[in-house]
Design brief:
alpha/beta; Rossmann fold; five-stranded parallel β-sheet; 14 helices; 45% helix
Length: 359
């Protein structure tokens, strides 16, 4: 049962953001002993391609999950539910074997439900759902459903549901591939991130002290989907204009907006750190404000950034994706509060996109 006791603007969302480490711990423990996890493991087939399907935040989650599965030697890709519905031939080929995974926090997102129904009915594909709700239309539309009920939220904006479902899918991939070290790293992540969240005042102060007209999030590889989700959190929670690009693509035209009114946030991975560091210094020289989030931040990056957040996690690169997105979630809420908004109820948005019945 959801409480209505919290009434201050943004407090539901902030509470849900800060609850993430404990939520991850609970969700992973329940998932590990779930009969539905065992059923999901039976869906894996040699040579099959995993297709992750979602809308909005769930699509960025699909991208992160697909990157993780590819890292674990499980061929995968992500598609928006709308593209699958409107252009199925771009995704599905008759000679391939697919395992579709449909993602929806509510289990009621119309395009997600319709995509699952189409795959089961028209393509005879057994689909796997992951959701944070019980007994919703997505469940009977799919063959197997993974339910992370503890990750559901009161807020409109997805925060802990995104990270919890991501960890759940990564745990599934690690179990299928027999990558026990990766699975242990996911289980160890909550305690490490809980320590990080005790010190967010620097980020709050930075959000309160600076005003920007443009927001850009940059990342490469597995972190690009996380940068996209950070972009969406700033857009939703603060009603601000934000964009996401692959880091090195920013040089090819978009850097024309770099300047004092633009905050460029770099989500820097170890694999591409040196190349991204050069870009960071270039944007700093152009006068843009820069925010760096990285597992390790060296002195060059500190000198070129207005704010640097060092995670210092022990987890391997792909297992720490969920930890990066928290800072975009928090910045979006803090900047929304600075603008006098209520991030719990963003303008023009509802918790679920449900469309009228149609063809």
């Amino acid at each position: 049962m959801k409480s209505d006791a919290v009434t201050e603007p943004g407090q539901h969302t902030l509470s849900e953001i800060f609850s993430q480490p404990q939520c991850w711990k609970t969700c992973l423990a329940k998932l590990a002993s779930s009969t539905n996890l065992r059923a999901a493991l039976q869906m894996a087939r040699p040579g099959s391609e995993w297709v992750f399907i979602g809308c909005g935040t769930s699509y960025y989650l699909a991208q992160a999950a697909a990157a993780s599965f590819n890292h674990l030697n499980l061929p995968a890709r992500a598609v928006p539910a709308s593209d699958l519905l409107l252009y199925p031939a771009l995704t599905l080929q008759t000679e391939r074997v697919y395992v579709p995974v449909v993602i929806s926090r509510s289990g009621r997102t119309s395009e997600a439900v319709r995509a699952a129904q189409m795959l089961e009915r028209d393509y005879n594909l057994r689909t796997l759902a992951i959701t944070c709700a019980d007994g919703q239309p997505l469940e009977p539309a799919c063959s197997v459903t993974l339910k992370l009920l503890d990750a559901d939220e009161q807020s409109t904006v997805m925060t802990r549901s995104f990270t919890s479902m991501l960890l759940g899918l990564q745990y599934l991939g690690a179990t299928i591939s027999g990558h026990d070290a990766f699975r242990r790293a996911l289980s160890d992540l909550p305690q490490q991130v809980e320590t990080l969240l005790r010190d967010v005042q620097r980020l709050r102060s930075f959000a309160d002290s600076r005003t920007f007209s443009d927001f850009v999030f940059l990342a490469q590889g597995p972190l690009f989907s996380i940068a996209s989700e950070c972009m969406l959190k700033v857009t939703e929670s603060s009603c601000s204009y934000a964009q996401a690009f692959h880091s090195l693509e920013f040089r090819h035209g978009p850097k024309s907006i770099a300047g004092p009114q633009t905050l460029i946030s770099f989500l820097m991975s170890e694999t591409s750190y040196d190349a991204e560091l050069e870009l960071l210094e270039e944007m700093n020289a152009l006068g843009a404000a820069t925010l760096v989030i990285a597992n390790r931040v060296d002195n060059r990056a500190k000198r070129a950034s207005d704010l640097a957040i060092e995670l210092g996690l022990q987890a391997p690169e792909y297992a720490r994706l969920a930890a990066f997105v928290i800072w975009g979630q928090l910045y979006g809420v803090y900047y929304g509060l600075k603008k006098g908004l209520n991030p719990d109820s963003p303008k023009n948005l509802a918790r679920v996109v449900e469309l009228a019945d149609g063809p």
